Amino acid sequence: MTDLTKLTLSQARDGLVAKKFSARELTDSFLTAIDKGNAALNAYVLPTPEHARAQADESDKRLKSGNARPLEGLPLGNKDLFCTNGIRTTACSKILGNFVPAYESTVGQNLWNAGGVMLGKLNNDEFAMGSSNETSAFGNVVSPWRRIGKNGKPSTDKLVPGGSSGGSSAAVAADLCLAATATDTGGSIRQPAALTGTVGIKPTYGRCSRWGIVAFASSLDQAGPITKTVRDAAMMLKVMAGHDAKDSTSVDMPVPDYEAVLGKGVKGLRVGVPNEYRVDGMSAEVQKLWDDGIAWLKAAGATIHDISLPHTKYALPAYYIVAPAEASSNLARYDGMRYGLRVNGSNLTETYEQTRAEGFGKEVRRRILIGTYVLSAGYYDAYYLKAQKVRTLIKRDFDDAWNTVDVMLTPTTPSPAFAAGEKSGDPLAMYLEDIFTVTVNMAGLPGISVPAGLSSQGTPLGLQLIGKPFDEETLFRTAQVIEDAAGRFAVPDRWWIKG
Amino acid sequence: MQVDEATVRRIARLARIRISDEEAQSLQGELSGILDWVAQLDDVDTVSVEPMTRVAAHALTMREDVITDGNIAGIVTANAPLSEDHFFVVPKVVE
Q1: Does B88 contact chain A (CB < 8 Å)?
Q2: Residue A208 carries which DSSP code?
Q3: Domain extent listing, chain A
Q4: pLDDT for A281
Q5: All structural domains of chain B with their residue ranges
Q6: What pLDDT score does A1 carry?
Q7: What residues of B are in contact with residue A341 (Cβ under 8 Å)?
């Protein structure tokens, strides 16, 4: 039999329906791949094989009786930020210890109700704070991609898979699941997708319920999928999205059939190219990638328009006020009293202080302190309120631009994947990874990253499309045109498989 | 904005995170660097700008004011570092 793990989500769906293989066979193929490959990549922090087999067996019954649901029998990975009923959930932080939720995230429940099979919990940066998956309490995730040296041989440097959804991007790129859940607060779906040759969409704020997802910055956090193809992302988001009474910020709007628009093309579509994204130091290959994207869309009948988003350069500094401020308040709940780690001191304050010093990693502590500072007495107006006003201006830039364009095209990241350790010593250098993605979170808009080419070192690069609020359909049909033109990018060699 | 050691310690105290002497030193530089960088927002005129509160205007919905959950004390305390008879056991707070 052919290797089932190489299938896309939609191919696997079609294969199951056509009875070419069973859900159990499909799931077992992935469990074997995880067994042999996870040690080298560290993408899963908790494989759940028994849980997966039970779900797959149930799917086989349904497939047999003709009652298949939209994702029936399809094996998925679940980021460890999503609470799972009866299964350990840690946000990859020591402070949650062996926390076992008694509830399932709404987005997760939507997937399982649609027949999805959970293979396990995926690694991420601690509390989703990071752009390289180097801050996880479970250790770094290694990208399946390797740089090709001048001698034409793969380098042994361990590349990062991006972050914070680095377990999700690595697992999808390495065929350790068909698709994965992810979350995006400043770029944590799109940047890892770009660095691993996968597709990642952050929907409009409010499209997916945040209930049961460990909170980082509540006005920015959104869930979305990382997948192998644009079609697969459309299949996943259709199921993940929807109104939820348990999240008052989730929006009560119908969720369109995203797969239905994939073939619509871009004839007559007005594509904006924002001037301000031509930043200093952008590499020639990223510039070329962007030009390629423009040419592909033009060839498919779209019109290209130069636009200006004047407040772009203020998005990242404003983000590094808003996100730490909200994180410092959200993470105040980890006090060692009701769940997770407790380190006893000689009095209550000492217990709090020691628990939080030992339980939070360095980057999380740094962000809580920044957040505490900007919210402390006398500073609220100067920092948080100022940043929220700048957000209004960033959003206004987009609102103005939507008068003349329907969608925007930018690179997803300023550069291809870097090696572990190359940026982890300098917080500001790491923060710049999100320079092209963070504006989208600040304005609450939907954004998708599509693989579009390879760097001179043979590693993936992505293009980002930004859409109007709740217009994910335009993103999907435009992304499909880019995917059709660029082709797909699979890892050339499965070096991580042992035995 | 230069953050001094006393400020770092005050913030750490507010955040209830114990920091070592060494960290108090290194955090001065790190926090100062980040705050200097975000200070570029001062260049933006926001005098007549409202702060953003949500991406799309939509009214919060109300639900029925009824009890929908309860009698799950065992589940609520299941993850406690220390519990007794469905109570959280915590360090002494009042002398």
Answers
A1: yes
A2: S
A3: 4-269+406-486, 334-387
A4: 75
A5: 5-40
A6: 55
A7: 81
Minimal C-alpha gap between B59 and chain A (Å): 10
Q: What is the pTM of this model?
A: 0.97
Q: In this structure, are residues A21 and A63 in contact, taking their beta carbons and an 8 Å threshold?
A: no
**Residues of chain B with C-beta less than 8 angstroms from the C-beta of A445:** 55
In this prediction, residue A192 carries a pLDDT of 98
- Residues, chain A, total? 499
Q: Which two tokens stand for residue A479?
A: 């992304």
Is B68 in CB contact (< 8 Å) with chain A? no
> Where in the sequence numbering do the catalytic residues of A fall?
79, 164, 188
Full DSSP string of A288-315: HHHHHHHHHHHHTT-EEEEE--TTGGGH
- The DSSP line for A310-331 is TTGGGHHHHHHHHHHHHHHHHG
**Tokens 């001062």 sit at which residue?**
B42
Residue B94 to chain A, least CA–CA distance (Å): 10
| B interface test, pick of A338, A358, A360, A471 with most B CB neighbours within 10 Å | A338
pLDDT digits (tens, 9 = 90+) for A303-315: 999 999 999 999 9
Residues 14-33 of B with CB under 8 A from A: 14-19, 27, 30-31, 33
**What pLDDT digit, counting tens, does each position of A45-96 carry?**
999 999 999 999 999 999 999 999 999 999 999 999 999 999 999 999 999 9
Q: How far apart are CA A257 and CA A190, in angstroms?
A: 22
CA–CA separation, A405 vs A423, rounded Å? 36
Q: Mutate one of A321, A363, A370, A430 to test the B interface: name it (highest B CB count within 10 A).
A: A370
User: Using a CB cutoff of 8 Å and minimum separation of 24, what contacts does A84-89 make?
Assistant: A84/A108, A84/A118, A84/A121, A87/A46, A87/A48, A87/A51, A87/A121, A88/A46, A88/A121, A89/A121, A89/A214
Per the CB < 8 Å rule, is A386 touching B41?
A: yes
Class of domain A4-269+406-486: alpha beta
- For residue A317, which residues of chain B lie inside 8 Å, CB to CB? 37-38, 40-41
Length of chain B: 95
Nearest CA in chain A to B61: A248
Instruction: Give per-residue pLDDT as tens, A159-190.
Output: 999 999 999 999 999 999 999 999 999 999 99
Fold held by B5-40: Histone, subunit A (1.10.20)
Is the distance from CB of A4 to CB of A12 less than 8 angstroms?
yes
